[in-house]
Amino acid sequence: xxxxxxxxxxxxxxxxxxxxxxxxxxxxxxxxxxxxxxxxxxxxxxxxxxxxxxxxxxxxxxxxxxxxxxxxxxxxxxxxxxxxxxxxxxxxxxxxxxxxxxxxxxxxxxxxx
Amino acid sequence: xxxxxxxxxxxxxxxxxxxxxxxxxxxxxxxxxxxxxxxxxxxxxxxxxxxxxxxxxxxxxxxxxxxxxxxxxxxxxxxxxxxxxxxxxxxxxxxxxxxxxxxxxxxxxxxxxx
Lengths: 113, 114
Known about the structure:
- The structure holds two protein chains of two kinds.
- Helices cover about 0% and strands about 55% of the residues of chain A.
- By secondary structure, chain A is mostly beta strands.
- Chain A is globular.
- In chain A, the strands form two sheets. In chain A, strands 2, 4, 5, 9, 10 and 11 form a six-stranded mixed β-sheet that branches. A five-stranded antiparallel β-sheet of chain A has the order 1-3-8-7-6, with no helix packed on it.
- By secondary structure, chain B is mostly beta strands.
- In chain B, strands 2, 4, 5, 6, 9, 10 and 11 form a seven-stranded mixed β-sheet that branches. A four-stranded antiparallel β-sheet of chain B has the order 1-3-8-7, with no helix packed on it.
- In chain B, β4 and β5 form a beta hairpin.
- The mean pLDDT of chain B is about 90.
- The interface between A and B is medium-sized, with 24 and 24 residues.
């Protein structure tokens, strides 16, 4: 089955800096890669996603890049703010999988004011 | 607005008890999922269901079973709870005819098995 590895497990940055979280996946048939944000005590919520026919997608301060050849994708957050502090999860899915996602281990991002 | 609810936020049970965790969605979702979340391990899929009475094992089904008698309700059952099942349990669902696989999560149930 699919295996998703996520790094780093913790990331600490100063407000205004950029943050990058990286994931690798094992199944070349995976074609959908979402990122979820989970604030303390709250449920995970989708923040951005990318499909395998696109190399990069941007939404304001967050962007995701995908390298299909290397089977890795990354989340980039620019101009970080304290409210970006949360746990971030990457995931991968195949189109025929009933929407089943395989998640990475999570990254605890702390943005210091 | 999509709404996924879980029966309890916190639950404390004793070893050997039978435990029921319930998830309800109010938007006619077809696919529903149960995960457990543990620090450093991310979200791991226990079981999922793609229709009433249909279920499939996820990555860690051992010690768990599920029930989906109605479309809006997906139950996770711990037949005989053990201490290693102490965890946060999250339910999720996908609305029909979505372009992507965006999952909508419930608030989670923190289960402690003593």
